[in-house]
Write a structure and sequence with these properties.
Blueprint lengths: L19 H13 L3 H5 L2 H13 L4 H36 L3 H31 L9 H10 L1
């Protein structure tokens, strides 16, 4: 080839859209990624974000469901775990003064938030696997704002 010969322009191929079956599967996996948090403590959030980043250009449905799962886990799993830790630390410190014993029921109730988040994530995964559009309470609105903004 000669230096003066124009080189053909390489155009990156756009990824093909996902089939409806694949969309349901990836949306389900985004919601069920919350189960990774049971083993690792935080990788469910990362998995939902990775699914979003990989499939955002191939499927609006998967992108929306995975963004919801990411935001939901960030808020309810991360925030719930943080609040649980604070509630137990405060309750433990105050138990030396007897006030902490009165706060232990509140700490127990707050401890249920991450557990409820896991159950809610499983419900979302099951509904997406059946092809139903799923919306988390609060996190669905945040995901809508993400798309609008």
């Amino acid at each position: 080839m000669d230096e003066n010969t124009p080189q053909p322009e390489i155009i990156p191929a756009t990824p093909p859209p996902l089939s409806p079956s694949d969309e349901r599967t990836w949306a389900m996996l985004a919601h069920l990624s919350i189960l990774l948090n049971l083993v690792t403590g935080f990788l469910g959030v990362v998995a939902a974000l990775v699914i979003y980043l990989v499939y955002k250009d191939r499927s609006r449905y998967v992108a929306y469901q995975s963004m919801q799962a990411f935001l939901f886990q960030l808020i309810f799993w991360g925030g719930g775990t943080f609040l649980t830790a604070i509630a137990w630390v405060v309750s433990s410190l105050l138990s030396a003064v007897l006030i902490g014993f009165l706060l232990m029921p509140i700490a127990c109730i707050i401890s249920a938030v991450p557990i409820a988040a896991i159950i809610y994530g499983i419900v979302g995964g099951v509904q997406c696997s059946q092809g139903t559009d799923f919306r988390y309470w609060l996190a669905g609105d945040l995901a809508d704002n993400f798309w609008a903004g």
